[in-house]
Amino acid sequence: MAGEDRKPARFVPWAMLSPGGLWLLLFFLLPTAVLVKMALSEKPNRFADPEFTWSVSSFSRAFEDYGGQFGRSFLYAGAATVLAFLIGYPLAYCIAAYGGRWRDLLIGLVVIPFFTSFLIRTIAWTSILGNQSSLTEAVRGLPLVPDDVNFLGNAYAVVGGLTYNFLPFMILPIYVALEKIDFRLTEAAGDLYATPMAGFWRVIFPLSLPGVFAGSLLVFIPAAGDFINNKFLGTPKTSMIGSVVQDQFLVQLDYPVAAALSITLMAIITVAVLVYSKLFGTDGLAA
Amino acid sequence: MPRPLPTPRPQSRRQFLGRSGMALGGLALGPAFLAACGEDSSSEADGPVTQDTKNLYFANWPAYIDEETVALFEEASGIKLRYTEEYNDNNEYFAKIQPLLSKGNAIEPDIIAPTFWMAGRLIELGWVEALPVAKVPNVKNLRADLQSPTWDPTGEFSLPWQSGFAGIAYNRTVTGRDLGSMDDLWDPAFSGKIGVLTEMRDTLGLIAKSLDIDISEPTAEKLQPALDLLQEKVDAGQIKQFTGNDYMDDLSQGNFAACIGWSGDIAQLRKDNEALDFVIPESGGTLWSDTMVIPKGSDGIDAAAAFMDYVYDPVNAARITAYVQYYSPVEGVVDELRRLGGEAAEVADNPLVFPTEESAKRLSSFGQLSEDDEATLEAAFSRIQGN
């Protein structure tokens, strides 16, 4: 009967979940457990393996010594997220609303630069914004601009690099959200005496929020942990927490402190995301 | 330490990218990190290891040998040489071998190429084999100034592979003048356009020498004024960045007016850009060496000796020098290069490869640091970099 036919279906969801579940178990949960254990370990001496002692000293060092880097990480990542939104939303909107049959091509063009390595693209900015680059020389030639203006080696350059590097992660989800919207809704809004502006803000924008929500997470999270942009575009004074983690892992070989920093970063981001989703609603994500 | 940049071949940019890429993915770290977390399941390998005289494995830095030597050595010795370029960074490589060597387990390579201070650490930790000097007669060709180095005072554990020196590299288009002293780096006119190396011993060494601090027997206390000066220049915005080999791009593009750099790099860059130059500051430069050591428990000690003997023959050493263009630790290489003529002879006369007698006097090596002092200095140096 029908009931018997359905029986095998019960384990189907589990079967479908298992590749992903196994993946998460092997490559997320286990490493996280290893990371937590490492963060609670101590090195008996500098060149020995860390020993698991439930010590929280690494965490106190992470909080005490690196507050500035944590602060800058979230400040820069936040600024980059806002900028990426301000740049990405109008772009995604134009492509979705007016792209017509060129839509796919235009979205392809957004992604094309990102076929090149992240590192190469960042280093390219040191040439474009360099001290002797034609762009810099041209700007220096403008009236009211000081002759020794320099674009590299400051916080703006770092935020700019972060924005540039993660921009597609903002554009793509917003585009996907906008693409699904039936733009005849704006006509309907107009029929109900809404101005085009009101139509956008009260109809289109709320419908696209899931994309904005997803996009801002996809930009903010990797940007907060980034160290490459600071390395090439910033100075020691603009260092972010990613640089510290990298340095502790690969140069100082202080795995416990590096692990404690990573966990702290993860914890702060998790809390921030929870708060953010409370404010903007994860309901939207499911829509 | 500088990674070599031979003329037409691999770019240090590429090496740098590879390294950062690894750091990015944490790949380099994976095995060591996980091993460090795991339980010790290894067996002690204390007894004499059965030697394999027919196979040798040398893990060296990238682009650090010419294209013929490996094959020529195999032909001459009958030893199969596995030559890799996996030694990319002292600390990363140390992280990789530490879990094994600290438990008395052998690693695969029979020769590795740590920079002098890392060689000193490995010797101190007892993680390297004594060299069978009797089987390396050509060791007599070792340059006099390298015969009892601070990192290996008896010279029984390491042989230099290549050496070189750090000083001031500058771009005359930006500076508008020649530089000659460390004070020139701190000229307010170059504010925000100065680079220093992430290699602590070169950066601190040069600054310390400019403050009349002796770096042959360094301690954290003695070097404090150098750290303070460095911090001051970072805070004031004089120093733009701490770099590895990637300073070469910033210097060529004029993002740096001047920086602390390595002689060999500038020797290469000068071929394309006459505005670039290198000077050993009045107060002196630092001399570094990358060494060959045999990790503890190697089964290729004799084969390693045969190889070391081969590359300490001035004829073979000159062939390597003509390619890598570093200050060869082998006496007689200059004559051999002159004999070869042409481009090789130019290398012999290049003061950025072989310093003049006068400038060689102003070079000195950074001595060995005690374990505690090294930890203190590395942490402080790291903090100044914003980490």
Overview of this structure, please?
- The complex is a heterodimer of chains A (287) and B (387).
- Chain A has helices spanning 2-6, 11-39, 57-65, 67-98, 103-111, 118-128, 134-141, 155-179, 184-191, 196-224, 228-233, 241-250, 255-280, 283-286; strands at residues 41-42, 51-52.
- Chain A is mostly helical and 287 residues long.
- The longest helix of chain A is centred in the first third of the chain and has 32 residues, at 67-98.
- The mean pLDDT of chain A is 89.
- With 387 residues, chain B is an alpha/beta fold.
- Chain B has 17 helices and eleven strands.
- Chain B has helices at 12-25, 30-37, 69-77, 90-101, 116-125, 172-175, 182-185, 200-210, 220-235, 247-252, 263-269, 301-311, 314-324, 333-340, 342-348, 357-360, 371-384, and strands at 55-59, 80-84, 111-112, 128-129, 158-171, 194-197, 239-243, 258-262, 276-279, 285-295, 363-364.
- In chain B, strand 1, helix 3 (69-77) and strand 2 (80-84) form a beta-alpha-beta unit.
- Chain B is globular and about 60 Å long.
Give a topology summary:
The complex is a heterodimer of chains A (287) and B (387).
Chain A: H1 2-6, H2 11-39, E1 41-42, E2 51-52, H3 57-65, H4 67-98, H5 103-111, H6 118-128, H7 134-141, H8 155-179, H9 184-191, H10 196-224, H11 228-233, H12 241-250, H13 255-280, H14 283-286
Antiparallel strand pairs in A: 1-2
Helix pairs in contact in A: 2-13, 3-13, 4-8, 4-10, 8-10, 9-10, 10-13, 12-13
Chain B: H1 12-25, H2 30-37, E1 55-59, H3 69-77, E2 80-84, H4 90-101, E3 111-112, H5 116-125, E4 128-129, E5 158-171, H6 172-175, H7 182-185, E6 194-197, H8 200-210, H9 220-235, E7 239-243, H10 247-252, E8 258-262, H11 263-269, E9 276-279, E10 285-295, H12 301-311, H13 314-324, H14 333-340, H15 342-348, H16 357-360, E11 363-364, H17 371-384
Helix pairs in contact in B: 2-4, 8-9, 9-17, 13-14, 13-15, 14-15
